[in-house]
Amino acid sequence: MTLVGWFQIILVLGVTTAAAWGLGVYLARLYSGERTFLTPVLAPVEGLLRRMSGHDGGEQDWRHYTLAMLAFNAVGFLLLYALMRLQGVLPVNPQGFGGVPADLSFNTAVSFVTNTNWQAYGGESTMSNFVQMAGLTVQNFLSAATGIALAVAFTRAFARSNARTLGNFWDDLVKTTLYVLLPGSILLALAFVALGIPQTLAGHVDATTLEGASQAIAIGPVASQEAIKQFGTNGGGFFNANAAHPFENPSQWSNMLSIFAMLLLSAALPFMFGRMVGDGRQGRALFIAMFVFLLAGVAVVYWAETAGNPLMTALGVDPAMGNMEGKEVRFGQALTALFVVVTTGLSCGAVNAMHASLTPLGGLVPLALIQLGEVAPGGVGSGLYGMLIMAVLTVFIAGLMVGRTPDYLGKKIEVREMKLVMLALLILPLVILGFSAVSAIMPMSLASLANAGPHGLSEILYAYSSGAGNNGSAFAGLNANTFWYNTTLGITMFLGRFAFIVPMMAVAGSIGAKLRIPASKGSFPTHGVLFVTLLVAVILIVTGLEYFPALALGPIVEQFLMLAGKTF
Amino acid sequence: MSKTTTASTFDPSLMMTAIRDAVLKLNPVGLSRNPVIFVTEVVAAFVTLLWLRDLVLHAGDPWFSGQIAAWLWFTVIFANFAEAIAEGRGKAQAEALRRTRTDTLAKRLILPETHERLYSKVSALQLVPGDLVLVEAGDLIPADGEVVEGIASVNESAITGESAPVIRESGGDRSAVTGGTTVLSDWLRVRITAEPGSTFIDRMIALVEGAERKKTPNELALSILLTGLTLIFLVAVVTLWGLAGYSGTMLQAVVLAALLVTLIPTTIGGLLSAIGIAGMDRLIRFNVVATSGRAVEAAGDVDTLLLDKTGTITFGNRLATALLPVGGVTERELAEASFLASLADETPEGRSIVALCKGSYGFGETAMPASEMTPVPFSATTRISGVDLDGRRLRKGAVDAIMKHLGSQAQVPPQFREAVDKISRTGGTPLGVADGDRLLGVIHLKDVVKPEIKQRFAALREMGIRTVMVTGDNPVTAAAIASEAGVDDFIAEATPEDKLNYIRSEQRDGRMIAMCGDGTNDAPALAQADVGVAMQTGTQAAREAGNMVDLDSNPTKLIEIVEIGKQLLMTRGSLTTFSIANDVAKYFAIIPALFVATYPQLGALNLMHLASPQSAILSAVIFNALIIIALIPLALKGVGYRAVGASALLRRNLLLYGLGGLVVPFIGIKLVDLVVSALHLA
Questions:
Q1: CA nearest B611: which of B596, B624, B626, B630?
Q2: Where residue B7 falls among pLDDT bands split at 50, 70, 90?
Q3: Helix (H, G, I), strand (E, B) or coil at A373
Q4: Which chain B residues are within 8 Å of A440, Cβ to Cβ?
Q5: Average pLDDT over residues B617-639
Q6: What distance in Å separates residue B281's CA from the closest CA in chain A?
Q7: Which single residue of B131, B363, B436, B512 could bond B530 by disulfide (Cβ 3.0 to 4.6 Å)?
Q8: Strand partners, B308
Q9: Which of B240, B245, B646 lies at the smallest CB-CB distance from A523?
Q10: What would the pLDDT profile of A354-371 be if each residue is shown by its tens digit?
Q11: Taking 90 as the threshold, does the pLDDT of residue B220 lie above it?
Q12: What is the largest CA-CA distance in chain A?
């Protein structure tokens, strides 16, 4: 670890925090229906869209809101699936790719609809420019907008008192896309182009190598996809190598801008929450809890990776660099560590290094961050509502200690909420551990593994964790493009998203309908250091510890084995 | 106030009953109400089968699986024991109450419309509401009812534990009588109001026995949390079999069973109902009966206390606090006149004047005049009282009455008006004193606020509870007393409707209200309040409307009731936190033990340096069982309560039970392991 490295990390996080606070204020105004500086420009467009769609923007209760969201995502899934299956007969296909196989199309469609962007395929060798732009990039916007809309609805549940409705899904969706995602992505795409990322409709450029051979180098509309991929915490790269590819992430600057872009919205949402519930301190506490995980993760990865691998040192590799396997020299250890932690803490899933090549301890961190439920700070929207579910749980466990039945922000947490919260919390371990355990003993699934020993188990665990957490990054080494993994990971991603969202929205409905009790000195304080500590502890103990046995058999034992000099 | 006449919790006879009940409670039908302990029992049965298999087939390690099975059964029994011992005390109390109920013979009047005292003797159980019965000196009142005629002294010690008799009479707020109490003198005609089997005593028996015990809303929500955690850990443990299979470890079912039971929240699962019962019991020993656990829980949540001024905030009587002479009269002259005029006055006001004159001006028995005094008693027409002696006519009374007594020609010094105004402004009552037709001065009577009540209210405010004083006084007087007592708000000239409206408006803002009352006109407000404490001396309507009955009829107890509610919730929360925090240490005991054979390097996670894999697993299971026993006293007694703000409470409890929950099992498991390995148990 170096001082310069830490300076880079702090710089990126500091700039992001400042920008996130400002964006949070903007978002709070936007979703409260107040004027923003973009209103004069965009209001006519919004009005036009509303008239075209014919929806009245009237308030919906949680059922209608959720049903609208589900219907919208179902249509998105079917369209994307059809686009991929019919790719061969669709235009803008310079490479002449044929239709995508059924299991891979299913997996990819679920993946992009759920904001996971797990890629069992190589982008440049499977998807035409048309599918990339009209299918994948469109879903990049819509899945992000869906997540944010849901987080806004959940926020309203706490902000309102005795309310039957939570807003209008279509309205929130249009507002998010029009006022947040589009302007942000356009600015980012321009910045990425300026930093040297290609943006063209051509399929490839031909180059003649030094040996005189001719090589077709894949390019395409990369910058625009890169922008929304990061900004909407999607993470699906244009290229198979994702943000490690020099056309997706050419320099230190583009790397820092990428981290900033993916962190920005998720970090802004807690500030928006605080403003909308009328107590900025509440949002700040959630933000700090999220960043505690992020900073701890960066510290561990940075330390583990610079400490290096004694086995490699024994083979004559210079230990001064630390473990550089699978990393890009142009990013360096510090910004790679930050990228690794941010992309997994966020459920973004873009990668600028190969996570499977991290040291076992360094690889444990991204895996654990995903398993904590993607709340550090989580995907756009999903991070906030995931964290709020954890806050509700924390208040319920510890709130009684002040001698009152628990309430969060003046909303009593009672039987119905606890049923739904536990239902939502059950789904992640069920699919992650369930599918991992089955895959760990079936010869069919074991055949996909490139590594023996604990590392193989880590690869399986990582795949299902990434799917369930809607992260989308991979521990490369596992060949996931098989019928078994395409199907089960598709199911995992679907359940990880929607089996969490539906009970979460039911909680929102029930919370919104409650009276908001005014806070008093006897209320459980949910804004101070004590609450942040508690929240972090509950997340670690309740959602983290259930994976401890599995992790002990994967990365933890691998770290001890590495130190002991044992290989497989 | 509170009477701790019942036996101590760990009384040997209660212990024996509890141990017997703990075994009886193993019946899975009853246990299924408690999911965590039910799962533990299923696992214990399963491990017992594995042990039998080991024994019969001479396979595995029956010594180990047998010990695990035994300790899993102990875990269930310890949890049952906690509940049984909490119930035990209530049962003993119910037994005593039940004795008062059996075969009472009632004198049912044959001609209820007349005043004829003709009756037939019937069993109390045959009485139906509307029956008129006669109760004479020495009789037990057969059932709950309303006095329609007569006045009698009644011994209600069967319910209140208070042996001093109380007066019951027809009409007014003292007309309710309770079945099982005894008439000491005179007679009463009583109209029965309760169905047989649902009288006050019946309900009390059911309550203290816990027969009607339903899970409170918060208990229910907590059970869901615990069940959810149990399911999550079930997933984690079952899938571990597959994950370990990958690494070539064949995990034994016994070991997985042990891991499951140590991870699921057995500590709080086992103590949860005991905590609830103990909370109700604390109230009962405090001589307050709650009609449901829900009411106790609500008490902890109360935001606003409606307190009657009289008796709660003030002593209930106006007392003389100062003498203000006018028109050249000396203070001593006024004091002497006041003293003499009040000597024959037996009202609390009169006695307080005598006491003031004795205390501040030294008048005592020596100041008694030698000559004959002729007391002039208070009458409704003159509204003054006093004494005639040696030709002096000393009088005191309300200012307007004294002015009337003096007549229109009387000299009224301007100081008199000033003094009267000053006293009225501060909420006091001025009494004029006259000697003949000469005005001597004014006595300042005021409501004296109880000492220390202000600190009490300050402490409540610190806890986030507002206090509201309810009084029939005019707003000026009310405001003066309110500011002196330090309440947050007051309702002056309060009618029952005002109380009801105040409660409703607070509830509309999401606040929870507690109040107490005794009159029939309090009943709507008592029913509307979240915690309505009816006085045992109150009317039947009031007792029906409230969700608690204070057997001592002491309105001040409302504050303690809130504290007991809070203590119950705090105990529940602290033990939940403790239980969940315990899991960290258990993981570190068991995980290395499970896999150290496959990966010796995982021994590094054996932070406690436990002797062997088997002793590690056994120690975790033993610790898990013993911690339930160790925490029973805390569950019954409740965690320490202090009237401080939520932040301070949280910090303290988190340090004790959160951090304690992390650290204690590391030490505990290590100690058990030392014993286990010293005894060669594993």
A1: B596
A2: very low
A3: coil
A4: 242-243, 245-246
A5: 95
A6: 18
A7: B512
A8: B470
A9: B646
A10: 999 999 999 999 999 999
A11: yes
A12: 79
- Among B residues 565-594, those touching chain A with beta carbons less than 8 Å apart: 565-567, 569-570, 572-574, 576-577, 580-581, 583-584, 587, 591-592, 594
pLDDT at B6 over 50: no
Give the 3-state secondary structure of residue A472: coil
Largest CA distance in chain B: 118
Q: Which among B217, B461, B658 is the nearest to A415, CB-wise?
A: B217
> Shortest CB distance from B239 goes to which of A426, A433, A566?
A433
Q: Percentage of chain B with pLDDT > 70?
A: 95
Q: What is the pLDDT of residues B528-559, one digit of tens each?
A: 999 999 887 777 778 888 888 888 878 778 88
3-state secondary structure A331-364: CHHHHHHHHHHHHHHCCCCCCCCCHHHCCHHHHH
Grouping H, G, I as helix, E, B as strand and the rest as coil, residue B291 is coil
Q: Name the residue of chain B whose CA is nearest to A543's CA.
A: B232
CB B323 within 8 A of CB B443: yes
| E strands present in B126-233 | 132-136, 145-149, 151-155, 166-169, 176-177, 182-192
**Are the C-beta atoms of residues B529 and B515 closer than 8 Å to each other?**
yes
DSSP for B179-199 reads TT-EEEEEEEEEEE-S-TT-S
Residues of B with active-site annotation: 308
Q: Tell me: pLDDT of A157 over 90.
A: yes
**CB-CB under 8 Å, A422 with B221:** no
Question: Residue A101: is the preceding peptide bond cis (ω within 30°)?
Answer: no
CB A80 within 8 A of CB A112: yes
Exposure of B370 by Cβ count < 10 A (0-12 exposed, 13-18 middle, 19+ buried)?
A: exposed
- Checking if the pLDDT of B358 tops 80, the result is yes
> What integer pLDDT is reported at residue B195 of this predicted model?
79
From start to end of B450-505, where are the E strands?
466-470, 489-491
**Cα dihedral value A238, A239, A241, A244, nearest 10:** -60
Position B84, amino acid: A
Residue B253 confidence (pLDDT): 92
> In this structure, what are the phi and psi dihedrals at residue B585, rounded to the nearest 5 degrees?
-65, -40
Closest by CA position to B526, among listed B499, B561, B493: B499
Tens-place pLDDT, residues B428-449: 888 999 988 888 899 998 888 8
Beta carbons of A402 and A522 less than 8 angstroms apart: yes
State ipTM: 0.93
Contacts of B238 in chain A (CB under 8 A): 437
Q: What's the rounded Cα separation, in Å, for the pair B495 and B498?
A: 5
Could you report how far apart the first and last alpha carbons of chain A are, in Å?
Answer: 29
User: Which one has a higher pLDDT value, B155 or B47?
Assistant: B47
Q: Chain B residue closest to A551 (CA)?
A: B243
Tokens of A176: 């998010």
Which range has the top average pLDDT, A472-481, A555-564, B74-83, B124-133?
B74-83
Cβ neighbours of residue B537 closer than 8 Å, sequence gap 6 or more: B166, B173, B174, B518, B553
3-state DSSP of B574-625: HHHHHHHHCHHHHHHHHHHHHHCCCCHHHHHHCCCCCCCHHHHHHHHHHHHH
Contact A265, A23 (CB under 8 A): yes
Contact A136, A110 (CB under 8 A): no
With residue B307 as reference, give the H or E element that holds it. strand B304-308
In eight-state DSSP terms, residue B8 is: P
CB contact under 8 A, B236 and A549: yes
Kindly state the tokens that stand for B427.
Answer: 């909420």
How many beta-carbon pairs under 8 angstroms link A with B?
220
